[in-house]
Design a protein that fits this description.
The chain is built from 10 helices and 2 strands; from the N terminus they run ββαααααααααα. With 188 residues, it is an all-alpha fold.
């Protein structure tokens, strides 16, 4: 049994990947594909934190606004943000204007900058062993795993904010540490 239905192009996708054009593009081109590099991973950490409590499409549709507001998610530049920068961001309609999440992004840049070995090595060090069976239904896709719980704990220990186990697992999915495309999905 599968939940997959063909899209307008005839391809089978995870159900969420067919719910909006923005989702289809993200599903097909990014979600579940390996992401490496300090700044690209920092961007994903920030966006997943901003998504907490919201729909992912809300973040996805404001992604360019976030990139502009947060200096392209360059860790060194965001780490240098001041209270005045945070106040400016609270007025920026191109992003989610949440004081705690904005402060967390700045704190996370500073935490990333302080890492010995870098953010890439830290995050990818929690990738699960390969070989997990592909989920056949959305119900088989977990929200939290032992690896995401351990990653969240380590990120918090290193000074990161808004990085609980569920957010850490969403990060792992988005950055390709796990492949949770359903078994017959075209993007698997």
């Amino acid at each position: 049994m599968t939940e997959l239905e063909p899209g307008p192009d005839g391809l089978l996708r995870c159900p969420w990947g067919e719910s909006a054009d923005d989702y289809r593009i993200y599903h097909d081109t990014e979600w579940g594909k390996p992401v490496h590099g300090e700044d690209p991973l920092f961007e994903r950490v920030c966006l997943e934190a901003f998504q907490s409590g919201l729909s992912w499409i809300t973040i996805l549709r404001r992604r360019e606004g976030f990139r502009a507001a947060f200096a392209g998610f360059e860790i060194a530049r965001v780490a240098a943000f001041t209270e005045q920068d945070e106040a400016r961001l609270l007025q920026d309609p191109g992003i989610i204007r949440n004081r705690l999440k904005i402060a967390a992004a700045v704190a996370n840049a500073r935490a990333a900058q302080a890492l010995d070995g870098g953010l890439d090595a830290l995050i990818w060090g929690f990738a699960p062993e390969p070989g997990r069976p592909a989920p056949r239904t959305s119900a088989e896709v977990p929200a939290v795993t032992p690896e995401s719980t351990a990653l969240a704990k380590e990120l918090k220990r290193r000074g990161f904010k808004f990085v609980g186990p569920t957010t850490a697992y969403a990060l792992m999915q988005a950055c390709g540490l796990v492949n949770d495309h359903l078994a017959d999905c075209c993007a698997r």
